[in-house]
Design goal:
The complex is a heterodimer of chains A (109) and B (114). Chain A has 109 residues and is mostly beta strands. Helices cover 0% and strands 54% of the residues of chain A. Chain A contains no helices and ten strands. In chain A, the strands form two sheets. Chain A has a five-stranded antiparallel beta sheet, with no helix packed on it. A five-stranded mixed beta sheet of chain A has the order 2-10-9-4-5, with no helix packed on it. Chain A starts with a strand and ends with a strand. The mean pLDDT of chain B is 92. Chain B has 114 residues and is an all-beta fold. Chain B is 0% helix and 46% strand. Chain B starts with a strand and ends with a strand. In chain B, strands 2, 4, 5, 8, 9 and 10 form a six-stranded mixed beta sheet that branches. Chain B has strands spanning 5-7, 10-13, 19-24, 31-37, 43-50, 65-69, 75-79, 88-95, 104-105, 109-113. Chain B is built from no helices and ten strands.
Chain lengths: 109, 114
């Protein structure tokens, strides 16, 4: 299965701290995408990193990809209460990608 | 509209009834996906449409589930003879192309089977 597996399942930090979430997968990919889901809403795309890229930045987000280890990480710097949400990775090959159970991030004010 | 629209936002029905869930994708998006999300869980892939190609139905959990996409735009997910285990949030997403582009999600239909 192409399913991403996020780690940890839950993370609780104080506002201003950095949050790091990890994703592992099992097979080759074209790209890997990270999404955020606020309670009661659909998923929102955050960032896409291609298989030939190693690091990508978008605002306070930093994503790394290590294809040799089949893993990715999402770093949110200087977290805010509004970052509280579930975060999902989606490794993509062709049209197939399966979202894992996600990491539930709580940022405490 | 600007985003993916799903209706109804909430649906409560009795066990054994049929339900239809609707998804209006972003105009011009050729790929359309349906997912199911149980409380506090990840997304379970159900079905995928890409242009005029035959849909990928590999994720449908039983023959009570079916979906169609008319005119390459609006999609309807139908669940026949609903069971309590069908209770979940059903999410629809669309994208410009398969896999290579981000998916844009609707806010889902929360289905409750009594």
């Amino acid at each position: 299965s192409q399913q991403g597996e996020e780690d940890p399942q839950a993370l609780s930090i104080q506002e201003g701290e950095n949050a790091t979430m990890n994703c592992s997968y099992k097979t080759s990919i074209n790209n890997l995408q990270w999404y955020r889901q606020n309670s009661g809403r659909g998923l929102v795309h955050l960032i896409l990193i291609r298989s030939n890229e190693r690091e990508k930045h978008s605002g306070r987000l930093r994503v790394t990809l290590d294809t040799s280890k089949k893993s990715s990480s999402l770093l949110i710097t200087a977290s805010r209460a509004a970052d509280t949400a579930s975060y999902f990775c989606a490794p993509v090959f062709g049209q197939n990608f399966v979202f894992g159970p996600g990491t539930r991030l709580s940022v405490l004010p | 509209g600007a985003g993916v629209s799903q209706s109804p936002s909430n649906k409560v029905t009795e066990k054994g009834k049929d339900v239809e869930l609707r998804c209006d994708p972003i105009s011009g998006h050729t790929a359309l996906y349906w997912y199911r999300q149980s409380l506090g869980q990840g997304l379970e892939f159900l079905i995928y449409f890409q242009g005029n190609s035959a849909p990928d139905k590999s994720g449908l959990p039983s023959d009570r589930f079916s979906a169609e996409r008319t005119g390459g735009s609006v999609s309807t997910l139908t669940i026949q003879r609903t069971q309590q285990e069908d209770s979940a949030v059903y999410l629809c997403a669309s994208s410009l192309a398969e896999g290579l582009q981000p998916q844009h999600f609707g806010d889902g239909t929360r289905l409750s089977i009594l």
